[in-house]
Amino acid sequence: MRRILLSSMPGCAVTEVEIDGVLHEYSSKEGVQEDILEVLLNLKGLAVKVQNKDDVILTLNKSGIGPVVAADITHDGDVEIVNPDHVICHLN
């Protein structure tokens, strides 16, 4: 019963991440305080609402020192970031 309920619940989540210069999740990125695995776990905590689409591509470009939050993600009008204050990583 539980499998049936979970498989029929509508919703969306981050399913794929591409980071320039990163080959696997156990590496690190220069200028990012957290390791890539922690960044990926933080991205899984992102709450997103998508209207009228099955798949969307979100883009994140940020430079400078400080936190990177969900509000920094660029998206089209069919996407709503529910938790814009969610911290993804810190740049140093």
Automatic annotation (TrEMBL):
Domain DNA-directed RNA polymerase RpoA/D/Rpb3-type: 1-92
Keyword Lipid biosynthesis: no
GO cellular component: cytoplasm; DNA-directed RNA polymerase complex
EC number: 2.7.7.6
InterPro entries on file: DNA-dir_RNA_pol_insert, DNA-dir_RNA_pol_RpoA/D/Rpb3, RNApol_insert_sf
GO BP field: DNA-templated transcription
Catalytic activity: RNA(n) + a ribonucleoside 5'-triphosphate = RNA(n+1) + diphosphate
Residues annotated as transmembrane: none
Molecular function (Gene Ontology), one example: DNA-directed RNA polymerase activity
Family recorded in the similarity comment: Belongs to the RNA polymerase alpha chain family.
Record protein name field: DNA-directed RNA polymerase subunit alpha
Annotated source species: Haemophilus influenzae
Name of the coding gene: rpoA_2
